[in-house]
Amino acid sequence: MPLLPRRQPVGLPAMVQDFLPPAGEPVPQTLQRGIDLQRRKRFREAEFCYQTVLRRQPKNAMALNLMGTLAIEAQQIETAIDFMKSAVKLEPGNAIFRNNLGNAYNLTGNIDLARKHLRKAIELDGRLVEALCNLGKSYRSQLEGDIAEGFYRRALAVDGQSLKALVGLGDLLTDMGRQAEAVECFGHAIAIDKANVEALSGLALARRAVKGDPTLALVQARLELPMTTDRERVYLHHAAGKILNDQHEYRPAIHHFARAKAISGNDFDIALHTRLYDSFIETFDAAFFEARPKFGNPSERPVFIVGMPRSGTTLTEQICASHHDIHGAGELPIIRSLAGELGFDQLDPAIFAKAMAALTPTKARELGSKYLDHLNKRNGKAARVVDKMPHNFELLAFISLILPNARIVHCRRDPMDNCTSCFMHNFSDAHGYNADLTKLGQYYRQYDRLMRHWAKVVPLAIHDMPYEETVADFETRARGLIEFLGVEWDDACLRFHETERTVRTPSRWQVRQPIYSSSVERWRLYGDALDPLRVALGPLVQP
User: Fold this and answer.
1) TPR repeats at which positions (predicted)?
2) Which end of the chain has less neighbouring CB within 10 Å, N or C?
3) DSSP string, 421-440
4) Contacts from 435-438 at CB under 8 Å and sequence distance 24+?
C-alpha cells in the first residue's frame, strides 16, 4: 500500500514519469535515484523507486530504511517505525539505521526506546552528528537542558558547520533562557545558509526584532523561492508575523499569521467537538461523582495547571517551579494517554463515558498510581510536581476519579487577548481549532462552557489564576497560589524570571522577564482584522 498521497506534504506535485527508474535498472542506481528525488521533495517518485527495489528484494535493508524516512515525511510515524525496525533487524550494526529508528521513537514520545537506539548508533559511530543531535533532542523534550546541551556541543565538535546541530542548540538555548547565545547559533547557521527555514524561524523567535532587522528580508526572500514547500511557508509566515509584530507593524503581522493558517489548513470538526463536550456535561454531573467517593490514589503531589494555551499557564508554572519544594515537569502527555485506556479520543464519545461509568475503585487506583510512577521518574523528592498540559481541562472528571487529592490551577485570560495570542503561534496539528479566527472563537466558547460545568460538579480543589489580576497585583496572586498548593511561602517565587530551567512553550521568552502588563488588551491593536473572532466569541467579549 503506497504511503502517498495523503495529508503530507501540502501541495504535493503530480508524479512525473521521466523521473521513474527504467526497467532493469540496477538496484543501487534505483536507490540512489530515490534518494536524489527525496532530497528534491519528489516524494511520490522516491517512493516508487524504493517500492520497485522491495518488489525485487523484499529484504533490502536500505530500501526499508528509506521507506521509513518517507513515512516520517508523510507523518505516518508508526509505519516508519515498522520499516526501520525491519532494517535494523537485518543490519543491527548499521549506525544510520539505528539513528533513524531512534529519531522515529523520539517523534512518538517513546523516550526510552529512542535513547536505546540512539546510544547504540553513537556507540557504533561516535562521529555521527545526526545521532548526537537526536539524542540531544530527546533530552530537550524531557526538559533536561544541561544533558541535551552536551550532546549538541559534541555534535558541533565533530562538525562546526552542522546546520542541524546549530539550529538544535539554538532552540535549546532559547528554551534555557540564554537568548544571546541562541541568537549567535542561529546567526552562524544563517551565515552558512541564509535560506535555512529552521534558522530563520528560530532567530525570529529568539529575540525581539527592531526596526530594520535584516532577518525579515531574508524570510521574505525565502518565501518567494519556488522550491519552498507549503509546510516551510507556514513557518516563514509565522516568523514574518513575529518580526513585524515586534516592530509594531500590527496589520501586516496579522496578515502573515492569517496566511500561515490558510496554507496549513485544518479539518477540525467543531460540531463533533461540541458533541463531545455535550456528552461530558450530560454524563458527568454532581450525582456521578457523589456515587464514587473513594476512588483513585490519594497522593497530594500532583498539581495540574489547565486552561487555554497562552492564558498564563507557563508563567504560573514558572512561579511554582521557582519554589524549592515544587518541581515543574512541563507539559506531560500522560493523563491523555491513561484516559486513552478508557477510550478517550475515540470518535464516539459514548465509549469514554461508558468506560468512566464502569470504572472500578481498583482500576482507578491503578491508573492514578501509573501517573504517579511517571511523576517519580521526573522528580521523586519534591512535595508537589506540576503538570502544565493546558488541555487537561477536558479531563478533570477523569483526574478526579484517579487522583482525587490533586490540585487544579485554572489559568484564565480575556477571551480576545487569549485567542489573538493563540492565533499568532504555530501550534501543532493537535490544535486544529487554531486554523482560523472563527473556529478559534467557537472553540474558546466550548472550553468556557465546559470549565463552568466542571467548577459546579467536579470534587477537586480548583484555584483560579486570572492573568489580568496576576499582572496587576503579582505578589498577592503568587502568594495565594503557593498557599493553595499547601506549601510554605518561598520568596524565590517573586523572582520567577531568574529561575534557571528549560521551558519549551511559546512563552519561554516572556517568563525570563519581570512581570509586565503590556499584553493586556493587546488585541485592540489589530483593529477590524479580528472582527471574525469577536463575532465568534459573542457574549464572552467585554464591551
Assistant:
1) 61-94, 95-128, 163-196
2) C
3) HHHTS---GGGGGGGSHHHH
4) 435/261, 435/264, 435/265, 435/266, 435/268, 436/258, 436/261, 436/262, 436/532, 437/258, 437/530, 437/532, 437/533, 437/536, 438/532, 438/533, 438/535, 438/536
- What one-letter code names the amino acid at 274? T
Q: Which of 82, 85, 13, 87 is nearest to 43 (CA)?
A: 13
| Nearest to 148, CA basis, from 117, 115, 116, 126 | 115
Rounded CA separation 413/506 (Å): 16
Mean per-residue pLDDT, 116-133: 97
Interatomic CA distance for residues 489 and 511, integer angstroms: 20
Segment (H or E) for 288: helix 286-290
Classify the C-alpha dihedral 385-386-391-394 as positive or negative.
positive
Single-letter amino acid code for the residue at 244: L
- In the chain, domain spans: 160-265, 270-540
Each residue's pLDDT tens digit, 48-63: 999 999 999 999 999 9
Alpha-carbon gap, residue 185 to 291, rounded angstroms? 57
Q: From edge to edge, which strands make up the β-sheet containing 461-466? A: 326-328, 384-387, 302-306, 407-412, 461-466
- Residue 411, Cβ density class (10 Å: 0-12 exposed, 13-18 middle, ≥19 buried): buried
- Residue 305: its H or E element: strand 302-306
Contacts of 305 (CB under 8 A, 6+ apart): 313, 316, 317, 320, 386, 387, 388, 390, 409, 411
Cβ-Cβ contacts under 8 Å for 486 (sequence gap 6 or more): 300, 383, 384, 407
CATH superfamily of domain region 270-540? P-loop containing nucleotide triphosphate hydrolases (3.40.50.300)
d(CA 134, CA 140): 10
Tell me which of 3.20.20.80, 1.10.940.10, 1.25.40.10, 3.30.420.40 is the CATH number of domain 160-265: 1.25.40.10
Q: Tell me the C-alpha to C-alpha distance, in Å, between residue 178 and each of 126, 442, 501.
A: 28, 37, 11
pLDDT in tens, 217-237: 999 999 999 989 888 999 999
pTM assigned to the model = 0.84
3-state secondary structure of 500: coil
